[in-house]
Specification:
The chain is 37% helix and 19% strand. A hairpin with a 2-residue loop joins strand 3 and strand 4 (59-64). It is of the alpha/beta class. It contains 14 helices and 16 strands. It folds into two domains: 2-177 and 376-393, Rossmann fold (3-Layer(aba) Sandwich), CATH 3.40.50; 189-375, Glycogen Phosphorylase B (Rossmann fold). It starts with a strand and ends with a helix. The protein has an eight-stranded mixed β-sheet with strand order 3-4-2-1-7-8-9-10, with helices on both faces. A six-stranded parallel β-sheet has the order 13-12-11-14-15-16, with helices on both faces. Strands 5-6 form a two-stranded antiparallel sheet. The chain has helices spanning 17-24, 80-88, 102-113, 136-145, 155-163, 189-194, 216-227, 246-255, 273-278, 307-314, 327-331, 343-355, 357-375, 377-393, and strands at residues 2-6, 30-36, 54-56, 59-64, 66-67, 76-77, 92-95, 119-124, 149-152, 170-172, 202-209, 235-242, 262-265, 282-285, 319-322, 336-338. Helix 13 (357-375) packs across helix 14.
Length: 394
Amino acid sequence: MRILVASHTYIVPLNCEKLRTLAMLNTDIEVTVVVPKRWKPGGVQNRLVEPEAVEDRNFRVMPIANFSQNNQGLLTFGWELVQLLKTFKPDIIQVEQGAKALGYAQMIFLNQVLGLKAKNLFFTWWNLPYEVKFPLNLLEGYNLQHTHGIVVGNQDGADVLREHGYQGPMRVMPQLGVDEQLFAPSPQPDLKASLGIAPDEFVIGFVGRFVREKGLLTVVKALTQLAKENALPPWKWLLLGRGPLKDELMQQIESNGLSDRVHWVESVPHDVVPRYINAMDTLLLPSEATYDFKTLTASGWKEQFGHVLIEAMACQVPVIGSDSGEIPHVIDEGGLVFPEGNADELAERLRQLMRSPERHHDLAQAGYHRAMTKYTNLALAKELLDFYQELCVA
């Protein structure tokens, strides 16, 4: 089976591990990843990324000249793509840019013109209802009409695509897996000591952006309750990250008398993050949707996945998440879930873990098992191959 995947996501070598693993599952599988030759992550003010070609047995990454250097919806490729398609002759073409992407339409068109008879797929994270007006409605209609399968990052996204008329095969799975070699259980007594955290202190952790939609102000309210309770073990709140909410968050922490319980750590290199997660007794992802369900406009945000959850689960750190977006589907029975924005319920979930070592241990094991069986690069590669095979025999 010859598989061609196109996306700007894979300009980062670390992001290629799922596809590299896919290529290793069977000697009959060949995976070619098309990436833009030049890309500006985050916009024109950022540095220009020019990825290198990779050739590793039956896995390769090919940078191809591209139009649009910072908008994935407008990303399309130059004449080299035609030459590649003619020589590689893929059985599967997967474009990871969404239902309204020009690049996906380009692949569909070339698939037809060149007579490749490959199965057309796309991946999307989009999980909010939206309306499509002319001329984008024509583009989306063309793309969906010629789609053989969709990989969508969350259940809400699958529901949205059904509402837009797609009735074909779909798989709900994340774009990227967790590296179980990097994110693995590893006690961190020295790191905790360097942060001024005593061995008997229960560490409540957060890793991510300090923005309102991540629910950090709700955490402050929940921890303010816990600070007044003498029956609980001593605890600290460890925050790893940065963002525009930090000043307001610091003010709230100070006004509620929590300053001596909080440790701030600026963003650290990706390979160091596992050490900090392993220093935690639980990791919180208390996200809160900003989507306006009354007006049903496409503006706003809702948690699309929460990759830090599976990283913590892989470290055997119990997770607590809100019921925003995909979070409860990611956690399932591998952690605890509370209603988003509800500080009382969050405080209660924390009490459960702090008061019961047995409950803490059971959730750590359940989360670890879920991460290892469902969210590693190997698990995702196997699921993706199963989906491809299903489409090819249909």
